Amino acid sequence: MNLDNFKETWQQQNSDTAAITINQTMLTDMKVNKQMKALNNMKWARIIEGVAFFAIIVLLGQYIATDFSLSAPTISAVVLTIFAIVGLAGNIGQIVLISKIDYAKPVSQLQKDIYRVCSHKLQLTKLLLMSVPFYLAYVFIGFDVLVGIDLFPHLEQHMIWIYSLLSLLLLVVTTTLLTKLHYDNIEISWVKNTIRVIVGERLVNMAQFINNIESTHR
Amino acid sequence: MNKPKKTLFAEAMEQHKGIVFKIVNSYCQNRDERQDLAQEILTTMWLAYDNYDNEHKFSTWMYRIALNVAISYYRKDSKRVGRASEDEECLVHIADFSQQEERGEEVMLLYRFIGQLDTLNKAIMLLYLESEPYDSIAHSLGMSKTNVATRISRIKETLKKQFESQDV
Predict the structure, then answer these.
(1) Interface contact flag, B92 A22, Cβ < 8 Å
(2) φ, ψ dihedrals at B94, nearest 5°
(3) Which residue of A47, B57, B143, B157 is most buried, as measured by CB atoms within 10 A?
């Protein structure tokens, strides 16, 4: 039996008007649907996060302005400001992306857009992980703000070396982890499980779908 | 005089609503899900109708939106949605698929076969059965024509084997 023999029978269903009835008045009165509502909620969440990042940037900016020197707390504040700026830029990008979601796009393109929107939590986690090698920045600012002490001059030389090496090691580890945490690598079980834990099963399914559609060999 | 947008849309929907029926029956397991997905497809189409370009075939545009909604369709709590759709006035009503023996054995078999395919192959099959050319399928799905051809040939092979094993 050939699949082509079924085409005519299949297409005859188009004229079966009894199988589906549409309330046209209700339909054309619709202003929004579930997906649009979900996207709108996401947009508002990103706006709120963006405001939070902006507030952090302003606070850190004020902190830097009060002591504009090459001290450890000031440099730490600059480092954290850079992360906050990246976070804010990411949020603005998300808001633009959500506004551009278009269901008339080719399937692969739209699924990638939706993946990018839905993977926001993953991106935020990545940003946090990226700041891990700079953990001393939090320590220096914490000491300065809470106790009023610049910790760096009190550290012994060998401790500075140990902390620096640890930061370098963490940088290598987090960079490796973060470059792997992508839908291209969804078949790797730890990547799949990490994405599932951070964002959920939906993103795993989407990643698998995108990989499937991009694959020319399967 | 030009017809109002609502009338044009309603006419197009009446003419092509079979597409929605085929997609929801291919992608959803139960009736509540079908109703819910059909509603999402129709409302998405209405909300996107302003951007519809008359130069393109309406059915192709409709298929693309309907497939995109079906593939993105995600249910967190199907029981809750099921109860809600019973209470609410329905925008769309889908006939009970399980009681449609008059559709013919061939069509029912095809639905069963399509139901076993993965999300992407389902989309390819639906477009193929509509006699869409390979490059149009490739364009709608955003994949290469070669990939579409390879997948269709594999699907045909699998279907052939399934029919042979069932002596159809």
Answers:
(1) yes
(2) -105, 130
(3) B143
Q: Which two tokens stand for residue B112?
A: 């069963």
Chain-chain contact of A27 with B43 (C-beta, under 8 angstroms)? yes
Q: Which of residues 65-124 of A touch B (CB under 8 A)?
A: 102-111, 114
Give residues with Cβ within 8 angstroms of B7, minimum separation 6. Answer: none
Single out the residue of B43, B60, B68 nearest to residue B119, CA to CA.
Answer: B68
Residue by residue, DSSP assigns A37-81 as HHHHHHHHHHHHHHHHHHHHHHHHHHHHHHT-SS-HHHHHHHHHH
Place of tokens 């044009």: B8
Extended strands (E) in chain A: 20-22
Write the ipTM.
0.82
* B50 to chain A: closest CA residue: A104
Q: Which domain holds residue B12?
A: 5-167
Q: Please return the burial class of A85, using the count of CB atoms within 10 Å of its CB with bins 0-12, 13-18 and 19+.
A: middle
What secondary structure does DSSP assign to B61-124, as a single string?
HHHHHHHHHHHH---S-HHHHHHHHHHSPPSEEE--GGG-GGG-HHHHHHHHHHHHS-HHHHHH
Domain boundaries, chain A: 11-217
Instruction: Judge: A108–B143 Cβ closer than 8 Å, yes or no.
Output: yes
Q: Do A163 and A138 meet the contact criterion of CB atoms below 8 Å apart?
A: no
Residues within 8 A of B (CB atoms), A 198-217 only: 202, 209, 212-216
Write out pLDDT tens, residues B125-165. Answer: 999 999 999 999 999 999 999 999 999 999 988 888 877 77
What part of B 72-131 touches A (C-beta under 8 Å)?
Answer: 72, 74, 89-95, 100, 103-104, 106-107, 110, 118-120, 123, 128-131
B144 close to A (CB below 8 A): yes
* Residue among A195, A160, A164 nearest A177 (CA): A195
Write out pLDDT tens, residues A4-47.
777 887 887 766 667 788 888 888 887 888 888 889 999 999 99
Cα of A96 vs its chain's centroid, Å: 14
pTM of the shown model: 0.82
Burial class (CB in 10 A: 0-12, 13-18, 19+), A15: exposed
Q: Which residues have C-beta within 8 Å of that of residue A193, sequence separation ≥ 6? A: none
Q: How many domains does chain B have?
A: 1
